[in-house]
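Project standup — Tuesday

K.O.: blocked on the structure for the chain from last sprint. Re-posting the sequence here as requested.
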Amino acid sequence: MRLSTPRTLALLLPGLLVAATASAQQPRKLEDNSFLVEEAYNQEPRVVQHIVSGELHHGDAALAFSQEWPLGGERWQGSYTLTGVQDGGLTLGDAEAAVRWQALAGARGRLFAAPKLGLLIPVGDADRRGGNGGWGLSAVLPVSWEVASRLTIHGNLGADWRPAAENATGDQAGTLTPMIGVSAMFFVTPMLNLVAESAWEQGVTVTGAHQTARAWEQAVTLGARYGFNLPGGTQIVPGAAWMPAVGDAATRSFLYLSVEHPF
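H.V.: unblocked you, prediction finished:
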């Protein structure tokens, strides 16, 4: 699957929904299909997941595409993420290659944890606002707590570090970007979830040679996701959310599509 423009994504969703409804099997509970906050469930053995998402605002969009692969089993998972900005044309952003370890899997009343370490790759062009212009590392600890049969809480704590980030004028400085996120998933049915999320990030902007400016940013999503099980073990999960204006951020829409299948 490749990065999709917002219009392509919007046209694709109805067709997938119709096909999935016609071929639906017995439902299994949704797990790893969150929007902003990572859930602490690694991929099942020999099952790959493809994810495309976009934050939309007046025809412009921030896009992301990910794949998650089990590494020999469920304990280890590998993934990569590509990003892009749709603003009169598609500009690639930075990429990430990461590995996750399933440290906890259902312990202490359905508690899950899967720490992740990633390599930040400067695929984008900082001169075109397409990335941060430097290599770096990313670390995040996702934790999931199945509070009750109809409620699951997810939390993230992490940071990105770049020793030599770059701005559009070529100035470089080291940056450390901490983040924290929390989400609540309410299971109306095993395959229909209401989603409420909030994520905070201390954004760091390179303002000059070895100079930076910091400001906390918050993003909120209020939406829903629905899963369709197809023959052969394929699962399709579309989702959508409203992102209200918080701080300097404008009101936006969020679209999401996940496809999981055996290989």
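K.O.: great, moving the ticket to review. The helical segments are 6-22, 107-110. The mean pLDDT is 87.
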